[in-house]
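Dear Dr. H.,

I hope your travels went smoothly. While you were away I took the liberty of generating a structure for the chain from your last submission, since the lab meeting agenda had it listed for discussion. I wanted you to have the full record in hand beforehand rather than looking at slides cold. The sequence, exactly as received, is reproduced here:
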Amino acid sequence: MALKATIFKAEIQVADLDRNHYSDHSLTLARHPSETDERMMVRLLAFALNADEEGLSFARGLSVDDEPDLWAKDLTGAIRTWIDVGLPDEKIVRRACGRSDKVLIYSYGGSAAQRWWQAAGAKLERSDNLGVIDLPVEATQAMAALAQRTMRLQYSMQDGQVLLTDGTRTAEIVPVELKPIRSFRRT
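The corresponding predicted structure, in token form, is as follows:
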């Protein structure tokens, strides 16, 4: 018998002072049986960091090979933004760059993420519509400690840093941009 996904509910408030974006979201996350709290919380952070993206939603991610963790589509169904978390195969990333206007990868995992970028970075450097952001392992572990089946979280972004709190505990995240997006298609 196959294991079922665990459902998490998250009420999040986003205050992005860098982009002057403020919003509230009621989200339902399905955590795949093989997904850790850390990975799920990185997906939630990726949502918060891109909350100003119109139509941003969670895709099937781990359940389907040709879908990202999050995406934003236009009214025709074309993918505007493709967002993956973790250490995706470089062939999948290159395919995503061809299928969407903008691709963002949020890597995490400390030395494993560094080894992944050393191996894949040279091949992915040519993709102008790709951005790669690494999250420090201490930060992702602190985020994982905030995971609960029902969450109320506040994300405050300023000067490239993120402060995440549930009202009692706090995680500070300083994303490191490994590869900036040079340009991306707008349809």
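Two observations you may find useful: The chain has four helices and eleven strands. The first strand starts at residue 6 and ends at 16.

With kind regards,
E. W.
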